[in-house]
Design goal:
- By secondary structure, the chain is an alpha/beta fold.
- The chain folds into 2 domains: 201 residues, Rossmann fold (3-Layer(aba) Sandwich), CATH 3.40.50.1170; 113 residues, Rossmann fold, CATH 3.40.50.
- The chain has 9 helices and 14 strands.
- The strands form 3 sheets. It has an 8-stranded mixed sheet with strand order 2-1-3-4-5-6-9-10.
- Helix 3 runs parallel beside helix 8 and helix 5 packs parallel to helix 6.
- It is globular, with a radius of gyration of 24 Å.
- It starts with 24 loop residues before the first strand and ends with a helix.
- Bound molecules: succinic acid.
- Succinic acid binds next to loops.
- GO terms for molecular function: asparaginase activity.
Length: 350
């Protein structure tokens, strides 16, 4: 019997190789949306039901995920995001905060519908208390579609969440290879797969084939640096629009209904039709917070630019669109903010 095998072994043979570094652990929280949508046939990209495919099936469609991160899936909800509601925001933000407080989780990905993604993303940006990455993603085509965009968006979102460079940048949105800040991103197309942009300021960076690159930083405070905590109280804030021939009826009805705040999607630089402007000034005198934003879609609203904010008691939303301005106003009012001066400071800060 030849017994020479062990005597000819090299010094390293027979030793246990050093362990490979463990992949990061990323929680994937599914909330529904078109990314989890299904249609009767693969060519149908508009007539489908959103939020019917479960998180395990979504992850199963992307085998490459196992090479990027250790995934911990969780089904938080199964909604079409047009029906997003504040109690679900509370549940989602509280769950993310709890997960990120654990040493076992390195980051979170949220799958969401595209329709209100920018609102949820900004809400989380202001209320998540961790520097660990939180990345939202979505899809414009249902999971059943030919050339569905969800699987690659999901892979890219997990790649971003598992990347060291994503820490401390606030909540991110990974969509169609671009990485956006939750503060800036908006949906800009009803059908195109390149549906999200950050008007004026541009994307933060990009993700492709496992590579993540950031090209700018986020300047305004977010996550751990904000004064906001997620709670179950949501002050009643509504949005109205100004347009040719608008009356004061909507504003008066909202005030009668007891709203705490009104955001105006104004024309141009947040300007407001004279009849509606008078109704809003009357609302301020009854203790309602009024914030001027713009329906234009990019740019910012200058304080005192198109309305005499100081005289009327209005607040300017700066570069926040009406939907994000509403999120900030709700959080500010919930945190006890009152009066145009204090609220303007909040809008100038966040
Ligand atoms: C939704 O927002 O849930 C439906 C639309 C979409 O995700 O694109």
């Amino acid at each position: 019997m030849n017994t020479s095998t062990s005597s000819s072994a090299t010094p390293s043979e027979g030793k246990t190789p050093p362990p490979l570094p463990l992949l990061r652990r990323i929680a994937v929280l599914a909330t529904g949306g078109t990314i989890a949508g299904a249609a009767a046939d693969a060519t149908n990209t508009s007539g489908y039901q959103a939020g019917v495919v479960g998180v395990d099936q979504l992850l199963g469609a992307v085998p490459a995920l196992s090479g990027v991160a250790r995934i911990q899936p969780e089904q938080i909800a199964s909604v079409d995001s047009k029906d997003m509601a504040m109690p679900l925001w509370t549940t989602l933000a509280q769950r993310i905060n709890a997960l990120l407080a654990s040493d076992d989780i390195d980051g979170v990905v949220v799958t969401h519908g595209t329709d209100t993604l920018e609102e949820t993303a900004y809400l989380l940006h202001l209320t998540i208390k961790s520097a660990k990455p939180v990345v939202l993603t979505a899809a414009m085509r249902p999971a059943s579609a030919l050339s569905a965009d969800g699987p690659l968006n999901l892979l890219n979102a997990v790649t971003v969440a598992a990347h060291e460079a994503s820490r401390g940048r606030g909540v991110l949105v990974a969509f169609n290879n671009r990485i956006h800040s939750a503060r800036d991103v908006v949906k800009t197309s009803t059908y195109a797969v390149d549906a999200f942009h950050s008007p004026e300021i541009g994307a933060l960076g990009w993700v492709q084939d496992g590579r993540v690159e950031f090209q700018r930083s986020v300047v305004r405070p977010h996550t751990v640096a904000t004064e906001f905590v997620i709670g179950a109280k949501w002050p009643h804030v509504e949005i109205v629009a100004s347009y040719a021939g608008v009356s004061r009826i909507t504003v008066d009805a909202l005030v009668a209904a007891g709203v705490r705040g009104i955001v105006v999607a104004g024309t141009g630089n947040g300007s407001i039709h004279a009849s509606m402007q008078q109704a809003l000034a009357d609302a301020v005198s009854q203790g309602v917070a009024v914030v001027r934003s713009s329906r234009v879609g990019s740019g910012h609203v200058m304080r005192n630019g198109a309305a005499a904010d100081d005289a009327l008691g209005f607040v300017s939303a700066g570069s926040l669109n009406p939907y994000k301005a509403r999120v900030l106003l709700m959080l500010a009012l919930a945190a006890g903010g009152t009066g145009a001066v204090a609220l303007q400071k909040v809008f100038d800060t966040y």
